[in-house]
Design a protein that fits this description.
Mean pLDDT: 91
Shape: globular
Strand content: over 45%
Largest sheet: 7 strands, mixed
Oligomer: single chain
Number of helices: 1
Low-confidence stretches: none
């Protein structure tokens, strides 16, 4: 079982930056790192469905982004620290949401059902 813990959320003004982190741990991860193929970030705003934000392949480092965040957000990973990051720049009020980290054994970054492990989420609020 993989455990995911997000951190780094908070309140920021529009145009500002924020970085959220996801610490990954668990027997299946440390013992068999290939069991995780993708790490992803999703978000859910009040009254809206959870949506894909970004993903990164754990071994090769390929990245994937939602159109709404391309050019503003950057996903990265530190394999030595077992941590995934989401650097968010030029934030907009519509980026306000709870951001969730998730792990997938599949290869489709936007398919939420492929992501079997989820963190508890971290709140990001962007004021106008």
């Amino acid at each position: 079982q993989v455990q995911l813990v997000e951190s780094g959320g908070g309140l920021v003004q529009a145009g500002g930056s924020l970085r959220v982190s996801c610490a990954v741990s668990g027997r299946s991860f440390t013992g068999r790192s290939f069991s995780i193929y993708l790490m992803g970030w999703f978000r859910q705003a009040p009254g809206k469905e959870r949506e894909f934000v970004a993903a990164i392949s754990w071994r090769g480092g390929s990245t994937y982004y939602a159109d709404s965040v391309k050019g503003r957000f950057t996903i990265s990973r530190d394999n030595a620290k077992n941590t995934v990051y989401l650097q968010m720049n030029s934030l907009k009020p519509e980026d306000t949401a709870v951001y969730y980290c998730a792990a997938s054994r599949g290869s489709h970054p936007e398919v939420q059902s492929d992501f079997g492990s989820w963190g508890q989420g971290t709140q990001v609020t962007v004021s106008s």
